[in-house]
Amino acid sequence: MSDRPVASLSLDLDNLWAYRRTHGDPDWARMPSFLPTAVPRLLEVFGEHRVRPTVFVVGADAEREDGAKAVAAITAAGCEVANHSHGHEPRLHRYSRARLDEELGRTEEAIVAAGAPRPLGFRGPGYSVSSALLAALVDRGYTYDASTLPTWIGPLARRHHNRGTRAGASESRDELFGGVGRVWAPNTAYRWRVGSHTGLAELPVTTMPLARVPVHGAYLLHLHQASPRLARAYFASALRLCRALGVAPSLLLHPTDVLGGADAPGMEFFPGMAVPTGEKVALLGWVLAELGRHFEVVGTGEHLRRGGVPRRVRDARLAERGW
Ligand SMILES: [Zn+2]
């Protein structure tokens, strides 16, 4: 057993079609996929650094041949497979209970059919979460949700997520306020109270302690484009703060962390896509090494098992506001 504190890694397996749809590109309906390029590359980097992140898989992909192959390879590599919704619709928090059950159920079936155990963890696309969703997770036997990003730049993060679309203009006030409210959301694990049930854990994606700004993926690559040294200094200070404040970091990765422009045609609008593949792989390797130097790195499900039952409990009715 290692005496280093625990940190976790997860990967949201967002596919090319989902980014293109969010961008408003009608060609998304052909469901273009970069999984055959991204998944082997990611698994190679994970293998080199001996980490097994939890992979949040989209049901619509797991139902297809390349997605099912990806799920099988991820499972064979010893990674936990979790649920990232069926359609990767960032407005999931507006879905009715019936639609949420369909989203969850179809994805569970596809994941199991592809050879992975039934998922116990869920992350909403675009950090979407609602009390109806949490109730559905409880009823379906999930042990944790990982949909929150406790940051004050919620509206900005959403715009970043929906970059290039006109969604920003139609953003409703409640979502905007929800985004700002999330600055008060905890940066470490807690439990949701759903009716009388308090067993569903929440593992937030860690943001920079105190400053509450994201430290992962596209944000880091954005800084890297300005200055590789700045990006590394920024990430190193985030880890230093986590250690100083006793925050067990849970960091998020995306396929775009290892894909160059040529691997993802039609995604030139997305931040960081001009960074060459080799540079991206090197930065990810550095991030994993830095994390592994100070922490024992596990998946999100394992992170929660190691941490024991979180003491803090929050009412699920506050989910829409994040706190
Ligand atoms: Zn996603």
UniProtKB/TrEMBL annotation:
Molecular-function GO term, any one: hydrolase activity, acting on carbon-nitrogen (but not peptide) bonds
Residues covered by the NodB homology domain: 20-242
Domain of life: Bacteria
PANTHER family xref list: 4-DEOXY-4-FORMAMIDO-L-ARABINOSE-PHOSPHOUNDECAPRENOL DEFORMYLASE ARND-RELATED, GLYCOSYL TRANSFERASE-RELATED
Organism of origin: Actinokineospora spheciospongiae
One GO term (biological process): carbohydrate metabolic process
Gene3D superfamilies: Glycoside hydrolase/deacetylase
The protein's name in its UniProt record: Polysaccharide deacetylase
